[in-house]
Amino acid sequence: MTMTYRRSRPVLSALSAGIAAAALLLGLAGSADAVPVPPIQNFGTIDGFGQNSEHERITRAALACAPGTAPGTAGACFQPASIRQLAGANGTMGAIGAPDMDQALTEAAHCDGADYLNAAGYPRTRAQATSVLLSCIAHLKGEFDRGVERADVLVNAAGAVSASDTDLSSDCTFALGVPGRGKCNAIEGFGRALHGTEDFYSHSNWADQADGRSPVGVSNPPGLARTGPAPFLRLAAAAPSASDIPGDLTTGCFSLNPWGCGKRITHGVLNKDNGTIDPATGRATSPTTARGQVAGNFNAAVQTAIADARAQWDGFRGSLVARYGTVRGQRMACAMTHDDPARDCR
User: Fold this and answer.
1) Angstrom distance (rounded) from CA 165 to CA 182
2) Which of 3, 50, 137, 250 is 20 to 30 A from 243, alpha carbon to alpha carbon?
3) Is 238 exposed, middle or buried (0-12, 13-18, 19+ CB in 10 A)?
4) pTM score > 0.85 for this model?
5) Nearest-10 Cα torsion for 123, 124, 126, 132
């Protein structure tokens, strides 16, 4: 899910979030939905043009602290200003939207192009599709690991939280690799990774079902109907191997060239990018894509993405402890999730 998505893929669609983000950064628009650009091709990152900030809403449903709930010293959930940096809000796309600003056409950032159908004459082999998916996972793992590495400055060797590196008196800027405060940099790595893992559930057949009214084929790929997060997508774990990928797993081919995907399964056929998501409960309704409207597929993709996002944050916290030790690692997670960690994470 590029989670304010819509990878419906008109020629300009993959560029829309980047244009919107640029306008926001330049002060040309007060909010993303004020920018006159067409929709992009994944879970949405803005409101408007068929998108409903799906990435933001999924991330908030997964990781925002419920009213009256605190993150605790272990950083179990994100307080309001901190979740704003990760998930975005009106007028900002957050770290989760960063790949739509500067990696809109980077296949690995959205887990596109790993398409396969077990049918004679299909133009891609299982091995080719698996190779593309493993490249996506490696890319996301690299972003995840950079987030862990950049958390180093949040807490010094004596265990003290850096007030300057965790200050949120102004929003972080996530674009084009421009570095910022330590907390912003750590959240960016995690958010960019999370964008791709969320996209996986929208862009693949992992959690969905085929339309039983039509024969299975390129325009109606089989669904795996899995109900939990994909184990090979755990970014804190060792990289998966080809044998870990199910034989009938597919994501969709995306190309700006109208003929670029040939007779392959396309993103337009498979995606479940758009609909309405309650950011508090995660309830997903009113899907607008064809695949999303089949057999509750949109809700299935959203619920699996929410569960996966929680698992990825647990893995990120565990990675901080593994790299920096229990005291520093837990305090870094506390600093990432608390709005005033210099006061609260001691």
Assistant:
1) 5
2) 3
3) exposed
4) yes
5) -170
What are the tens digits of pLDDT across the range 258-283? 899 999 999 999 999 999 999 999 99
Rounded Cα–Cα distance for residues 81 and 26 (Å):
22
Give the contacts of 172 (CB within 8 A, at least 6 positions apart): 85, 95, 180, 181, 183, 184, 187, 188
Q: 107 φ, ψ to 5°? A: -55, -45
Cβ proximity of 20 and 4 under 8 Å: no
54 vs 96: CA distance, rounded Å: 10
Cβ neighbours of 281 (radius 10 Å): 9
Q: Which residue has the tokens 């006061």?
A: 343
Residue 311: how many other CB atoms lie within 10 Å: 20
Contact, 168 vs 133, CB < 8 A? no
Which DSSP category does 67 fall into?
T
Radius of gyration of the chain (CA): 19
Task: Identify whether the C-beta of residue 313 lies closer than 8 Å to the C-beta of residue 305.
Answer: no
- In angstroms, rounded to a whole number, what is the distance separating the alpha carbons of residues 235 and 144? 7
Q: What are phi and psi of 342, to 5 degrees?
A: -60, -30
- Provide the token pair at 291: 């695949």
Structure tokens belonging to residue 1:
């899910």
**H/E segment holding residue 285:** strand 284-285
Please give the Cα distance from 53 to 66 (Å, whole number).
19
Output the pLDDT for position 203.
Answer: 98
Q: Is 102 helix (H, G, I), strand (E, B) or coil?
A: helix
Task: State the Cα–Cα distance between residues 123 and 78, nearest whole angstrom.
Answer: 45
Can you tell me the mean pLDDT for 167-177?
Answer: 90
Phi-psi sector, 306: left (phi>0), alpha (psi -120 to 50), beta: alpha
Q: Which residue has the tokens 């996301």?
A: 140
